[in-house]
Amino acid sequence: MPANDDSMTSPQLELLLSKVDSKFSLVTLAASRSRQLQDYYRPEGAVSQKLIPPQVPSLRKLLSLSFEEIAAGKIVRISGDEVREREAAEAAAAADAAAALLGEGDSADE
After folding, report:
1. Radius of gyration of the chain (CA)
2. Are residues 71 and 103 in the same domain?
3. What's the pLDDT at 55?
4. Which helix (H) or strand (E) covers residue 79, if one does?
5. 99 and 55 in one domain?
6. Angle, CA of 26, 66 and 89, to the nearest 5°
7. Are residues 58 and 106 in the same domain?
8. Whether 18 and 63 share a structural domain
9. CA-CA distances (angstroms) from residue 107 to 32, 57, 98, 101, 104?
10. In the 8-state DSSP scheme, what is residue 45?
11. Mean pLDDT across the chain, nearest whole number?
């Protein structure tokens, strides 16, 4: 059997399930990623900075491409709490950087 078999069992379900908590998580992650890829391929989609391009080379359909990305470990599911924690950390880092810049600017005026 060829290594790059283009069938419904490629990538293997067991490999995909090892990357997520449950079948439900796998299905929702793949569906969400497929919608992101669909938006990316729209003419106005590639312009947006928030859309992530495909992470693995493939000529397959978007859902199959999503499964390939999950199997390759390029796309992972993060919880809402993790997203909020990351956003808070980024905001704190930006505030610290701004304060440091303002602090340096004040000492230059003296």
Report:
1. 20
2. no
3. 83
4. none
5. no
6. 75
7. no
8. yes
9. 49, 51, 14, 10, 5
10. G
11. 81
